[in-house]
Design brief:
The chain is an alpha+beta fold. The protein is about 25% helix and about 20% strand. The strands form 3 sheets. Strands 4-3-7 form a 3-stranded antiparallel sheet. A two-stranded antiparallel ribbon has the order 1-2. Strands 5-6 form a two-stranded antiparallel ribbon.
Length: about 230
């Protein structure tokens, strides 16, 4: 420790705390000066920095032409209510009679002629005919042989069968005059074979009361393997 002179005649020893206190002022101001010098050097030597341009260039917006004001038409006129019925004083006879129709009041020579009879060709297309007794197939056994003979070999060997519904136009003698397919079997070869069989069938004539009449009938022609 360094001796501190307090009294000319006495010598006193200085403590570490006393030495620190005596040197505090020099350390404080020295630190302030060093800090100021360090900041000055940092700002002086630091490269120049510039913020990036983040501005947005907005395009010019075209002005929208506002249309002229539209005149709204007035609402339609209200529909007039129907007029209320008016009760009149007209008198209606309670006793209304129709005069008798007699030949004296309507002579035959003054009557219009009867309509001309229009003949209809019922053979042109299947139509309904009023009959009491429908035709009956007479050569049923022959029909079985015809089916076996006209059966398409390729379909028969493959085990393919089917049913074709055929329209028959039968005249007053029971003869088949015209045939056409009513409902297909799904195979053209079977339909063609059914028409060949149909042309060879014989029927009894259709009867309307006691008169033979031509008629259309439908009959199923079935091809099947045994």
């Amino acid at each position: 420790m360094n001796p501190i002179q307090h009294d000319p005649g006495a010598e006193v020893l200085a403590t570490a705390n006393d030495e620190f206190k005596s040197s505090f002022s020099a350390w404080f101001w020295g630190s302030i000066s060093a800090a100021a010098m360090l900041h000055f050097l940092v700002f002086a030597l630091m490269p120049a920095m510039q913020a990036a341009d983040v501005s947005v260039n907005a395009e010019a917006i075209d002005m929208i032409d506002i249309p002229e004001q539209i005149d709204i038409p007035p609402p339609p006129e209200a529909i007039a209510r129907p007029a209320l019925p008016v009760v009149t004083d007209t008198h209606i006879e309670d006793d209304i009679t129709i005069p008798d129709v007699t030949f004296e009041a309507n002579p035959v020579e003054n009557l219009p002629p009867p309509p001309d009879e229009v003949e209809t060709d019922i053979s042109a297309a299947p139509v309904w005919t009023n009959v009491d007794i429908y035709p009956v197939l007479k050569n049923r056994d022959e029909m079985s042989r015809l089916l076996e003979r006209e059966y398409p070999p390729l379909l028969r060997d493959a085990g393919i069968g089917g049913t074709t519904k055929v329209w028959f136009f039968i005249d007053e003698t029971g003869k088949v005059v015209k045939t056409q397919v009513h409902t297909s079997s799904g195979h053209q070869a079977l339909d063609d074979a059914a028409i060949k069989v149909a042309d060879r069938l014989n029927f009894s004539p259709a009867m309307n009361r006691d008169k033979a009449v031509p008629v259309w009938v439908a009959l199923d022609i079935k091809f099947e393997t045994r």
